[in-house]
Specification:
Length: 154
């Protein structure tokens, strides 16, 4: 299986189906992403989408951290992978691409894990719990990670 990651400037074909899957799974972040891309696109440093066989299977974005921080920070947000394609490394690939965007620009990248499953995901990929912050987890970037547009994933 090859996952192709692409930067987005607008909503891609298949977004409505991905949003419907997210909402059926109890998540509303893609509704918010659609509204933000329409009205406040400049807030995003990057929005990436994951495709398999030209079908949209995931999306994620990175913005400035909206809450006060001790130094400039960016926040990963609106990350979602279709339920049929989870546990295949797609979310990790999107996060890696978004962290590549942040590398060299900020040291701290934050997330707000919406539930225990999300918290476990962020911790599994190296984010640390952030006590007494407006976000739940953060990571410190040392250097840019190796990236790429299309990668085979297990």
């Amino acid at each position: 299986m090859t996952v192709c990651l692409r930067r987005l400037a607008s909503l891609p074909n298949g977004f409505d189906e991905l949003r419907a899957d997210a909402e059926a799974d109890g998540h509303r972040q893609l509704r918010r992403l659609a509204a933000e891309l329409e009205t406040r696109q400049a807030m995003f440093h990057a929005v990436v989408a994951a495709f398999i066989d030209r079908g949209l299977v995931g999306v994620g974005a990175i913005t400035d951290e909206p809450q006060p921080a001790s130094e400039p920070a960016w926040r990963l947000r609106r990350l979602y992978v279709h339920r049929r394609f989870r546990r295949r490394g797609i979310a990790r690939s999107m996060v890696r691409a978004l962290l590549d965007e942040a590398a060299g620009k900020v040291r701290i990248v934050t997330v707000h894990a919406g539930d225990d499953d999300a918290a476990r995901f962020w911790e599994a990929i190296g984010f640390q719990q952030a006590a007494c912050k407006a976000w739940t987890h953060q990571t410190t970037l040392a250097a840019a990670a190796a990236g790429g547009a299309c990668k085979p994933v297990a």
